[in-house]
């Protein structure tokens, strides 16, 4: 299992680095839109949509994605930034305010329409963040992804080795407080290395801690959905890792919130396409 997990992770990393640095913004947007469509399909399964409802939700996601991706070629280009900001704001509000209370209540909305709209906003915001951060600077995107990946790996190994105290046993029995501490320790080392070699402020470490906290919330929300759906993984697409949502659950809060706080002060001058 661990060997399969590592092989898949290496393959994903190689593919990510290749596309991030060699694809244009438009090609990157289309590739990542395809990925989030797979994630939306998994979300549809988690909330148990009927087949026709699932296809309709995927169609809406695709159409909205293409409209946003190519809006800069239309007379409506001026509104692109406002649409992006609105989606990021809704997603950020959910992750910062709603999600923690949702997890404490350990309940999901029973209304499939509400859950469909929620999934559309959250996954669409993740796509916008992938495209927006890439347009600003590919290294910024990779830095955010690296933070979540380092935290996730450190939490996994620290939890396996030292895990004694459960973090949220009714949602995800495998997660422990020792794993959380391992994640925080790992990103602290990562932050110190960046601060030393890139001359960043040590306040960067505090930002990384916040990203770790958000990634854990994203992980737990997906775990709650899987638990309600009685599924171990969101899908089987990635050997050793499960589905797309299992890989991006920690990115779903962190990337949109990162872009939102970068985007907000520069609303009038920011462009999704750099």
Report on this model:
It is a single chain. The protein has 274 residues and is mainly alpha-helical. The chain has 10 helices and 2 strands; from the N terminus they run H-H-H-H-H-H-E-E-H-H-H-H. Strands 1-2 form a two-stranded antiparallel sheet. It is globular.
Tags for this model:
274 residues, mainly alpha, two-stranded antiparallel sheet, 2 strands, 3% strand, disordered C terminus
Strand and helix layout:
Blueprint: H1 2-22, H2 25-46, H3 51-69, H4 80-105, H5 112-136, H6 138-162, E1 166-168, E2 172-176, H7 177-198, H8 203-229, H9 244-248, H10 251-263
Antiparallel strand pairs: 1-2
A few lines on this structure:
The chain is 75% helix and 3% strand. Strand 1 (166-168) and strand 2 form a beta hairpin.
Q: How many domain units?
A: 1
What is the share of helical residues? over 70%
- Radius of gyration, in Å, reads 18 Å
Number of helices: 10
For the biggest sheet, the summary is: 2 strands, antiparallel
Please state the structural category: mainly alpha
What's the number of extended β-strand segments? 2
Which parts are unreliable, with pLDDT below 50 for 5 consecutive residues or more? 270-274
Distance between the termini: 41 Å
């Amino acid at each position: 299992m661990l060997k399969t997990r590592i092989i898949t992770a290496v393959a994903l990393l190689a593919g990510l680095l290749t596309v991030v640095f060699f694809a244009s913004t438009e090609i990157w947007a289309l590739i990542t839109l395809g990925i989030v469509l797979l994630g939306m399909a998994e979300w549809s399964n988690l909330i148990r949509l009927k087949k026709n409802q699932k296809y309709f939700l995927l169609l809406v996601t695709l159409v909205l994605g293409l409209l946003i991706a190519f809006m800069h070629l239309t007379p409506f280009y001026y509104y692109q930034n406002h649409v992006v900001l609105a989606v990021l704001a809704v997603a950020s509000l959910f992750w910062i305010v709603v999600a923690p209370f949702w997890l404490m209540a350990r309940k999901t909305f029973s209304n499939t329409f509400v859950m469909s709209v929620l999934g559309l906003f959250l996954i669409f915001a993740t796509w916008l963040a992938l495209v927006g951060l890439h347009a600003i600077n590919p290294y910024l995107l990779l830095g955010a992804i690296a933070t979540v990946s380092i935290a996730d790996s450190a939490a996994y190994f620290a939890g396996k080795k030292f895990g004694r105290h459960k973090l949220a046993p009714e949602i995800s029995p495998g997660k422990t407080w020792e794993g959380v501490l391992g994640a925080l320790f790992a990103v602290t080392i990562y932050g110190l290395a960046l601060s030393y070699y890139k001359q960043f402020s040590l306040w960067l470490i505090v930002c990384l801690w916040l990203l770790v906290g958000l990634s854990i919330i994203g992980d737990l929300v997906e775990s709650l959905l899987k638990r309600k759906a009685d599924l171990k993984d969101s899908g089987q697409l990635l050997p050793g890792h499960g589905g797309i949502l299992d890989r991006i659950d920690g990115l779903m809060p962190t990337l949109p919130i990162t872009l939102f706080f970068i985007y907000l002060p520069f609303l009038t001058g920011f462009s999704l396409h750099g």
